[in-house]
Amino acid sequence: MIFNPEFSAQQQHTTSPIVTGGSVIALAYKGGVVVGVDTLCSYGSMADFKNVEKIAQVSKNTIYVSSGEFSDFQQVVRELAKIDRSALQYDDGVHPSPRDYGNYLARLSYKRRCKINPLYLQNVIAGFHNGERYLGLVDIYGTYLESNFVTTGFASYFCKAIISNYWNDNCTLDQAKQVIRECFKVLFCRDCRAHDVIQLAYVDEQGAHLEQPERVETKWDFSGFKNRANEKLHTQ
């Protein structure tokens, strides 16, 4: 058998994520949907890229964000941008809704999974269309869910209690943002792949709004941190 380097290169698939993003938290509120994600991309176990904006506006009323392999995220952004660009070129006034993007992403993820070359992503699509808010989740297998709140990564373990206690889907935008900030405080302290700089974005009837990254407030001046710990201290 003759070895063909070009053919061999075409058959190579990603077997594990390399540069990865962390948790995503998305909440519905009274007038739309707000999402939050930190700005860190880790190279393996190293916190390497700390100023990466991981929220993409794919249309006037749709935003997309994910946790997982960052290069796969970039590829999905390009695919979704093609759909939006094609709709603009037709110039017939018909544009895909946020749910259309969610359904397309579910089919794309399922196709890649069936080819044993999955998109290593937990995808979140948020939007507002015809007076209705939309929030969808698509996993690595193409499973598609719609909900009033979505968490991915370690936020699924550490943040659901916070969301359950302090959030409801009729809260204001500011209240929803504050819940997300509290969640990322916990993640920064408990998840070694989390960062204390986050970016928020929301979608309402006026369209998508991406905010500048901000640093969450954390507290490190506990007495146990400042004073030397020993057996006597812990037995008092």
UniProtKB/TrEMBL annotation:
Repressor recorded as keyword: no
Source organism superkingdom: Eukaryota
The entry's keywords: Cytoplasm, Nucleus, Proteasome
Pfam families hit by this protein: Proteasome (PF00227)
Listed GO biological process terms: proteolysis involved in protein catabolic process
Gene Ontology terms: cellular component: cytoplasm; nucleus; proteasome core complex
Protein family per UniProt: Belongs to the peptidase T1B family.
Functional note: Non-catalytic component of the proteasome.
Self-association and partners: The 26S proteasome consists of a 20S proteasome core and two 19S regulatory subunits. The 20S proteasome core is composed of 28 subunits that are arranged in four stacked rings, resulting in a barrel-shaped structure. The two end rings are each formed by seven alpha subunits, and the two central rings are each formed by seven beta subunits. The catalytic chamber with the active sites is on the inside of the barrel.
Protein's UniProt name: Proteasome subunit beta
